[in-house]
Design brief:
globular, NIF_FeS_clus_asmbl_NifU_C, FSCA_dom_sf
């Protein structure tokens, strides 16, 4: 899979997650895909920034969905503003 295909699959995953985050007043954006397409850096936004369960959301929701669309991704990290 090319880097462009990985990016498209990660964007598809984020589009799947975004409505759930937006319903709680938050959002997410893709910052970068690094380390030979194994590391995704995202930024939680809005209400998600100060939410006490955002790490759980990141691991169980965001990372799981991204890995479903792009299995070569090993880790997803949130880069705080």
């Amino acid at each position: 899979m090319t880097s462009e295909e990985v990016r498209l699959n990660v964007e598809k995953a984020l589009d799947e997650i975004r409505p759930f985050l937006q319903s709680d007043g938050g959002d997410i954006s893709l910052l970068s895909i690094e380390d030979n397409d194994t590391l995704v850096k995202v930024q939680l936004q809005g209400a998600c920034v100060g939410c006490s369960v955002n790490q759980m959301t990141l691991k169980s929701g965001v990372e799981m969905t991204i890995k479903k669309h792009a299995p070569q991704i090993e880790k997803v990290v949130n880069i705080a503003v």
